[in-house]
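Quiz preparation item.
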């Protein structure tokens, strides 16, 4: 039996004001809940993107931010970031740099996104139960494919805001 996942609910400043289940947060109720994103660059300046599994309930099969995941109720942003990076890519030693936070809204959910970056040249082992793999992309390759349905809308919006001049 699968245990129910609980997410914190936050206000527009990111302060926890309650909790709700994953299902409630993804039901279209637009309950604002926090997530973490990490953009993993290598020393050549390429950006690692994950390919979302076809079994994901949101944006299956699309290329997405290096790491993205929900913060569990009772967990700090930093704890969630390190847990998600370990679970999705097998990375345990990295130095995150905070970039920004913003609110992203789709047809079924509303997220308070905490975005970070790091430079990492070590081994990456994507979890096959979470991802269909991943690879480093040249930024020019990402930019020529924006708007073609290859990437998640959230990734495209965040990439444009953070990395396009």
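Solution:
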């Amino acid at each position: 039996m699968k245990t129910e996942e609980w997410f914190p609910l936050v206000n527009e400043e990111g302060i926890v004001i309650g909790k709700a289940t994953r299902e409630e947060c993804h039901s279209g109720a637009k309950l604002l809940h926090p997530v973490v994103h990490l953009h993993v660059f290598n020393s050549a300046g390429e950006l690692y993107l994950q390919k979302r599994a076809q079994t994901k309930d949101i944006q299956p099969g699309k290329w997405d931010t290096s790491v993205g995941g929900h913060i569990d109720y009772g967990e700090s942003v930093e704890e969630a970031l390190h847990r998600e990076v370990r679970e999705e890519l097998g990375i345990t030693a990295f130095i995150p740099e905070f970039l920004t936070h913003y609110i992203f809204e789709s047809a079924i959910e509303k997220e308070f996104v905490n975005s970070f970056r790091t430079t990492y040249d070590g081994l990456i082992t994507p979890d096959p139960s979470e991802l269909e793999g991943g690879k480093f992309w040249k930024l020019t390759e990402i930019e020529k494919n924006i708007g073609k349905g290859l990437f998640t809308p959230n990734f495209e919006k965040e990439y444009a805001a953070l990395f396009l001049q």
